[in-house]
Predict the 3D structure of the following.
Amino acid sequence: MRCWDCGQERQKDFKKLEERLGYQFKNKSLLSKALTHKSVNLHHNYEKLEFMGDSLVNLFIVRILYENFWKTFSLHELAEIKKYLISTRFLIELAGFLNLSEFIESKKRISDGFLSDKIVADCFEALWCVIFLETKDINFCFDLFKNLFEKYIKNAVVSQKYRQDYKTLLLRFCKEKNIPVPFYRLAGLEGGLVVVECGNHAIREKGYGKNEKSAQQDCARKLLSILQNQSHQK
């Protein structure tokens, strides 16, 4: 196992990361910390750096989203897109463009020796905290982030990768938890929107949309959230 004080081998590895980022780190020990899981070192790990990095990455992504699409989408739609873009699922895609998992030190692995998505996403956020702490320049950090990832963020929005099939997710959840499969019923119109009810014998919810399909998705999303919360409380 390589130690946290950045021996020559790991410093050489960092050069590859610096080339992909287009940024040279001044404090290699801090960079090492951002890429070290607590399973390797309880004190020298990324957790506190990720605490700030999470907010920085969220800000950068939301700013890119706003600058490119604030005229295109409603506030509700922007919130839906934001939720996807700051999710672990999308952050690991951005981390993948840097091959970040190559540089992460962790004894905690999932099947086949791979790192969990959460560890990779956390290290990605911690990495941007290090850049900010070194430069103390939020505009520099944003410009660097934008140059690297704006095209991927725009593509995710334009291709509608953020849209999830909540009906399928709800059906899958019900089957896994042995919950009765929900029904869907067209309930009418309200404020110019289509209203759909869905539920089972124990719980019902309403969904709204421009058409019946989108209303069903909204309804399934709400019902899934309720059922998941109930499951966590048990």
Q: What stands out?
A: The chain has two domains: 8-158, 166-233.
